[in-house]
Specification:
- It is a single chain.
- This protein is an alpha/beta fold.
- The protein is built from 31 helices and 36 strands.
- The strands form 6 sheets. An 8-stranded mixed β-sheet has the order 1-2-4-3-5-6-7-8, sandwiched between helices. Strands 15-14-13-11-12-16-17-28 form an 8-stranded mixed β-sheet, sandwiched between helices.
- Helix 2 packs across helix 13, helix 4 packs across helix 10 and helix 29 packs across helix 30.
- It is globular and about 95 Å long.
- It starts with 28 loop residues before the first strand and ends in an 8-residue tail after the last helix.
């Protein structure tokens, strides 16, 4: 055995059948003896007869009477075994039984692992690839074959694929690596396990390595499942392969397996077949740099990151469902369909191709009129002219090129709204870099997920962002927006400041070096992260053409352009102000907490920018209205000059809009409907909301108006199980998922193949997007939003959407805000109402009987329980959407006997 392993690792034992284990069908299990062989397509010195245990669905498919279109060859890593793939085998049979493409699944136990033979010999990477080739030869495996690997089984399966190009039609893999960068250390857990004094004890003598691996599942493995993974490794004599696998990790170029790893990594780059990379980002061993490497070698690969999942990805997430969805799309009959596109990303080459995002800056570069007004600048209000802003953008753009930023590089912007953020953003877009923008409202944990997931090449940040990046290990070379002492620069790994970058750019421009041509309209321009209010924040990729289309639809809908003064208390509008040619001001507020915005701050911003348009989030409006008594006559006069008031990001009540218009009496109040994936889909004004309420059919919901120019809205009707099904329709009063089609819909989600597929499933137009919202169209063509798809409640009698009942409950005397959620299994859920009372209660509890009776009478839904809380939980970013998912978990807990604590 490999040096450093104790003698017990060399034990031999025959292959055996596994005992009865949860989720494992005995019919799948078989032993296969590979006779002594003379060689293979790759190396290996052990050519003796060996017996393998493997799982195989061939017999089960035959019993169903179906002929497989191909074979899915699954290879586990260390220290698991073929049990890891049981869900893949089960799903394959479910798909076949339902009439879908039948794939035979073969999941092997590598020699010295699982229930395969214990050979007592060292088996390095060349031997393991050769072993697998000998087994598939003995099985008489013919194409088409798709490989699926995990951990070091990913390397072995890819090595087999490289050696069998005549059979392989696709490759899929979970958390693995085919290359160790020279400038990056082996991950810490493996460095520890490889220590000579620890290797044998941790991997063979004791089950420490095995137990550590099982302990990092997310969520924790159920005890019977964990015991099933332990089953083949009871006793040190059965664990030699675990130690051997760890010892075989190529730590440097001199390692015996390094040459084979290099051969495989080079071969992978030459594979010209569909590929799927699925990943668990919480893996402490296979870090995201290994995903980056694989994606670079397989640039056509589809990628899906399961946020929150880790190393044991097939246990943590629905890998099986994802793989079979992918097979159905990419290889429906075992072959790539003629004319198939390699990915779900769409061509937007016609969208806004003639006018780049920074066109207004070029048009106004000789103007000394104000472009930006910073209300919270050091030393007081600061005004930046169009001339200065245009020059600064050019200088920073040229400087970025000078320090090494290249088209396609990703640049994470960790800067609060203002001149620095504006200059950095437009400079990056100007040179073809892709900006990564994640709202600080996500919190450190959410920002860490977002930034690490986006894998930026560069970070431009203020001090708080740079400190977080250093402390939390965010990737990217660093550029600071402020000057820092040398020790701080070194500690934060800052290479440049934005000012020094601009100076370099100015010298470059003065020397006659022109900026490059504008990027093509279908080149990526930005990755904007969603709010994280309905799950982990997703990176939404926009092309240059799509961002231009966003600008154009906003300009056309609201007549915002050159000369318009815009108060932007909503980050997307603050960033798009210069693209619109609008004079923009970000009010003095904490951007991570919209409720910190006061009426006085809005009035000051309007006066400073001579603004006629104001855009605020619903949470900000509530506090603006609440702080209105502090306004002076001058403040009220300034607000009286506003002609257009906008609020979006969450449903806005007519009462709140009415209160806001009392502060801005000459403004038309509008509430656009959109999302990060498409910032403007429909629009309605206050009069429209009032009129819609008067003519409502009674289905409930928030009226968000008519589609904007170029936007089409359809509904995917809900089935009795609450799923969107059937043909898209524009028939009135049909409740279902809202589907939008527009030229300014996002291009795709970043490294989320499955999410991309779901967002476009059933939408023929490539510009279409399934919003995840549910609602209906009324007889006049207006759209009503009734909640989120994941918040739909399925009772034994009906399917309910939450917004309508919540609105009716909020009309009950003594009720402030309300949240409605379903508790229990789908199809048998009970409806629970949770309300804030007026005045507020001090602690959560059951509602008083009289209040509960009034709520049940008003709800128009079968309310099983009514609970009262001091404050309802809200989403992270907007502080205004009720977090119904959290509410449902809390209600289920307290009604099940849990502690009555705040949700």
């Amino acid at each position: 055995m490999t040096s450093g392993l104790p003698r017990v690792a060399a034990s031999t034992a025959p292959a055996t059948q596994p005992p009865s284990l949860p989720g494992l069908d005995p019919a799948w299990s078989r032993l296969v003896t590979v006779p002594a062989w003379s060689g293979g397509r790759s190396g290996g010195s052990d050519r003796a007869a060996r017996t393998w245990h493997l799982l195989d669905t061939a017999g089960s498919l035959a019993a169903l009477g179906v002929e497989p279109v191909g074979t899915l060859l699954c290879v586990h890593g260390n220290p698991t075994w073929s049990y890891l793939w049981r869900s893949v085998l089960r799903t394959s049979l479910e798909v076949a039984a339902a009439g879908g493409p039948a794939w035979r699944v073969i999941a092997v136990d590598q020699l010295d692992m699982g229930f395969s033979e214990r050979t007592g010999l060292e088996r390095g990477l060349p031997q393991r690839v050769a072993d697998l080739g000998a087994l598939t030869d003995e099985l008489g495996l013919t194409g088409p074959v798709v490989t699926l690997g995990h951990d070091w089984g990913g390397v072995v399966s890819l090595g087999w694929a490289v050696d069998h190009p005549d059979l392989v039609v696709g490759v899929t893999t979970c958390n693995t690596a085919v290359h160790q960068p020279d400038d990056a250390p082996i991950p810490a857990p493996l460095r520890l396990a490889l220590r000579p004094g620890l290797l044998g004890r941790a991997t063979v003598v004791t089950p420490a390595f095995l137990e550590t691996t099982l302990a990092i599942a997310h969520p924790k493995l159920e005890r019977p499942v964990a015991d099933a993974f332990r089953a083949p490794y009871r006793g040190a004599a059965r664990r030699g392969g675990i130690g051997g696998f760890v010892a075989d990790i190529p730590v440097d170029a001199g390692h015996p397996s390094a040459r084979e790893l290099d051969r495989i990594s080079s071969g992978v780059a030459a594979l010209d077949v569909p590929a799927l990379l699925v990943w668990g980002p919480r893996d402490p061993v296979f870090l995201e740099r290994y995903l980056d490497d694989l994606a670079e070698r397989l640039p056509h690969a589809d990628v899906h990151r399961f946020e929150g999942a880790g190393h044991l990805l097939p246990e943590d997430a629905d890998v099986a469902g994802t793989v079979f969805d992918w097979l159905g799309d990419r290889l429906p009959d075992g072959r790539v369909p003629a004319g198939a596109e390699p990915s779900l990303q769409t061509d937007t080459s016609e969208a806004a191709a003639s006018r780049p995002l920074w066109a207004a800056l070029d048009e106004l570069r000789d103007s000394d009129e104000a472009a930006l007004v910073e209300m919270a600048a050091p030393g007081g209000t600061r005004t930046i002219s169009w001339r200065l802003l245009a020059r600064r953008v050019d200088e920073v753009a040229a400087g970025l090129l000078d320090v090494g930023v290249r088209p396609g590089d990703r640049v994470s912007l960790l800067v609060t709204p203002g001149a620095d953020l504006t200059a950095a953003l437009y400079a990056c877009v100007r040179v073809g870099a892709t900006v990564v923008v994640a709202d600080a409202g996500l919190g450190l944990r959410g920002l860490t997920r977002a930034v690490k997931g986006a894998r930026p090449d560069w970070i431009i940040g203020a001090l708080p962002g740079l400190a977080a990046a250093r402390a939390l290990g965010w990737p990217g070379r660093r550029i600071a927006t402020v000057a820092l002492p040398a020790p701080a620069r070194a500690a934060l790994r800052v290479e440049h400041t934005l000012s020094s970058v601009a100076r370099r750019g100015a010298r470059r421009l003065a020397a006659g070096t022109a900026l490059p041509d504008a990027p093509s309209s279908d080149a990526p321009a930005a990755v904007l992260f969603t709010s994280g209010s309905t799950g982990p924040a997703k990176g939404v990729v926009y092309t240059h053409g799509q961002l231009g289309a966003v600008r154009d639809v906003l300009s056309a809908q609201y007549d915002v352009g050159i000369g318009t003064g815009l108060v932007a208390g909503f980050a997307p509008f603050a960033l798009l102000g210069p693209a619109l040619g609008a004079r923009s001001v970000a009010p003095d507020m904490d951007v991570t907490a919209p409720r910190t915005l006061t009426a006085k701050a809005v009035a000051d911003s309007v006066a400073a920018a001579d603004a006629t348009v104001v855009f605020l989030s619903p949470a900000a409006i509530a506090n603006v209205v609440a702080t209105a008594p502090a306004l002076t006559d001058a403040d009220r006069a300034a607000l009286g000059r506003v002609r257009l008031f906008l609020s979006a990001g969450a449903p806005v009540s007519a009462a709140l809009l009415t209160a806001a218009t009392e502060l801005m009496p000459n403004a038309s109040a509008h509430t656009p409907y959109g999302m990060t994936e498409g910032l403007l889909m429909t629009d309605v004004d206050l009069d429209g909301i009032r009129g819609a309420a008067a003519t409502s059919s009674g289905a409930g919901g928030v009226c968000v108006g008519r589609p904007a120019a170029g936007v089409s809205v359809r509904i995917a009707p809900l089935s009795p199980s609450g799923a969107p099904t059937g043909e898209l329709t524009d028939e009135p009063d049909v409740t279902g998922e809202i589907v939008v089609v527009a030229p300014h819909v996002r291009d795709h989600y970043d490294r989320l193949w499955r999410t991309n597929r779901a967002a476009r499933l059933g939408v023929i137009d490539p510009r279409g997007h399934r919003t995840g919202d549910v609602g209906h169209l009324d007889a006049s063509g207006q759209l009503w939003v009734e909640g989120r798809l994941q918040h739909v409640i399925t009772t034994p009698a009906e399917v309910l959407t939450p917004v309508g009942p919540e609105q009716r409950i909020e009309g009950v005397t003594g009720v402030g805000r309300a949240g409605v959620a379903g508790v229990g299994p789908a199809g048998t859920q009970q409806v629970v109402a949770v309300v804030e009372t007026v005045p507020s209660v001090r602690r959560p509890g059951l509602a008083p009987s009289a209040l509960a009776a009034s709520i049940r009478a008003a709800a128009g839904a079968p309310i099983a329980a009514v609970l009262v809380v001091p404050v309802l939980p809200t989403d992270i970013r907007h502080n205004s959407k009720v977090d119904r998912t959290r509410l449902a978990r809390w209600a289920a807990s307290v009604l099940g006997g849990g502690r009555m604590v705040r949700p």
